[in-house]
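Dear H.,

Thanks for agreeing to be a second pair of eyes. The structure we're designing against is below in C-alpha cell form, covering all 277 positions.
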C-alpha cells in the first residue's frame, strides 16, 4: 500500500515537472507577453486619440476610434496568445461558428444595437456634447459606444439609450445649430392692456444683450377661454439659451406687476341652489 501511494505521488510529481518544463514555460511567457502587449495597445490607442484631438477631429470620431483600436487589437492579441500556449484556435473558431446561429437568435437585440451604433457613427445625427431629445428623454451626449449612447441629464442622471431603437426613431438635436429660438408663453387677462404687454416684451428683448437682433424678436397674440396668450419668440446663441429663457421668465413677471398687467388663470364658478321642501 505504501509503495503504491509512493509510485502515484512520484508519477504526479513527474507529470507536474514535465508540464512546467514544457507548457508551463509557454504559459508564463505568454502571460508576460500578453501583459506587455496590452500595455502597448493602450499606449497606441491613447496616442491615436491625442493626435486626432490635436488635429481638431470630431470628438465622436476620436472616442470611437480609441475604443475600436483598444478593444479590437486586444482581441487579436488574445487569440494569438491562445495559439501560442497550444490551444487549437481553429477548433475554437469552428465551435463559435457552429454556435453562431443560436447565439445570434439569443442576442438579436444586441446585434440591432450594434447595427444602430454603426449607423449613428457613420451618419452622425448628433455628436458628443450635443443636447438631444429622443425616446422620451433628453440630455447631453456624454459618449457614443457601439451598443448604446450615454446621456447626462440636468440633474446629473446617466441614461443609457440602446443604439438600435435610437437609430430608427426621431431624434431632436437642440444644439446642432449655432443659434436657437427661445419660446416663452405668457397668459394675461382680457382686462389687461394687450398693446402695452407687447411693448414691454419687445423692450425687454431689446435691452437684453444676449438676444440677437437678426432674426428679429416677435410677439404673437392668440385668444383662449381664460385670457390672451402672448407667444414670445427671441433668438440667441445656443450656449446662451437657458440664460435667456430664465431671464425672461423673471423679468417679465416683474415688469408686468409694475405696469399692473395681470396674468390669467383658470377659474371655477359654483352656483348653489336651495331646494324648498
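And this is the sequence the design step returned. I haven't edited it by hand at all.
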Amino acid at each position: 500500500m505504501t509503495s503504491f501511494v509512493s509510485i502515484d505521488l512520484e508519477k504526479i510529481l513527474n507529470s507536474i515537472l514535465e508540464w512546467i518544463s514544457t507548457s508551463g514555460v509557454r504559459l508564463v511567457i505568454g502571460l508576460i507577453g500578453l501583459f506587455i502587449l496590452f500595455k502597448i495597445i493602450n499606449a497606441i490607442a491613447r496616442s491615436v486619440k491625442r493626435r486626432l484631438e490635436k488635429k481638431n477631429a470630431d470628438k465622436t470620431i476620436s472616442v470611437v476610434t480609441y475604443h475600436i483600436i483598444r478593444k479590437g487589437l486586444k482581441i487579436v492579441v488574445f487569440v494569438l496568445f491562445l495559439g501560442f500556449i497550444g490551444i487549437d484556435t481553429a477548433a475554437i473558431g469552428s465551435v463559435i461558428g457552429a454556435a453562431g446561429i443560436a447565439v445570434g437568435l439569443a442576442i438579436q437585440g444586441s446585434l440591432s444595437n450594434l447595427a444602430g451604433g454603426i449607423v449613428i457613427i457613420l451618419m452622425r445625427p448628433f455628436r458628443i456634447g450635443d443636447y438631444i431629445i429622443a425616446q422620451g428623454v433628453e440630455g447631453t451626449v456624454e459618449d457614443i459606444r457601439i451598443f448604446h449612447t450615454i446621456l447626462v441629464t440636468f440633474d446629473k442622471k446617466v441614461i443609457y439609450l440602446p443604439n438600435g431603437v435610437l437609430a430608427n426613431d426621431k431624434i431632436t438635436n437642440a444644439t446642432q445649430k449655432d443659434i436657437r429660438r427661445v419660446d416663452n408663453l405668457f397668459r394675461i387677462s382680457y382686462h389687461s392692456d394687450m398693446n402695452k404687454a407687447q411693448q414691454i416684451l419687445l423692450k425687454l428683448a431689446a435691452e437684453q444683450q444676449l438676444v440677437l437682433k437678426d432674426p428679429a424678436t416677435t410677439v404673437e397674440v392668440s385668444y383662449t377661454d381664460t385670457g390672451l396668450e402672448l407667444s414670445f419668440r427671441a433668438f440667441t446663441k445656443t450656449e446662451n439659451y437657458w440664460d435667456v429663457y430664465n431671464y425672461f421668465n423673471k423679468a417679465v413677471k416683474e415688469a408686468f406687476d409694475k405696469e399692473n398687467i395681470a396674468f390669467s388663470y383658470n377659474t371655477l364658478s359654483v352656483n348653489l341652489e336651495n331646494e324648498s321642501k
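Two observations from my side: Residues 1-6 have pLDDT under 50 and may be disordered. The longest strand covers residues 179-188.

Warmly,
E.
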